[in-house]
């Protein structure tokens, strides 16, 4: 619904931004404006004013034509505003998309580095297991030699067992308690 403001300098017809002044409303308003305001009628449509000098005795079709022109201008400005908002949204979405693609690439590279590190660690574990097996074999052969010496000499059994115990302790310490 239009709001009509009558003042000494003229008449202002103001539309609601959510429901602009329609052609029919302007025609009805023009019929009701008193004759003493034959100066200027100001039509304010949506959110911008357009001042149009109108003689109040204009025919209804001329008024309707002028209102159509105003609505056309208003629609063009509205469409342009929508385009600008759309362009801003598209630009923002493109930026977000590029950021997500970059983040995905970074995560993929980090995953590949982690996989390479895991493979290196698994390889090192295999090497350490092999070294441990070799060390265990060496200790077993050393222990077997001492046991053989102890069995061969009856007088030094107690001393031989002490050496075996010491070797066993060294073996446990060097393997980190795995034996």
TrEMBL record:
Pfam families recorded: DUF4407
InterPro entries: DUF4407
Organism the protein comes from: Candidatus Kentrum sp. MB
Residue ranges of coiled coil: 68-138
Domain of life: Bacteria
Keyword Coiled coil in annotation: yes
Record key words, sorted: Coiled coil
Name under which the protein is recorded: Uncharacterized protein
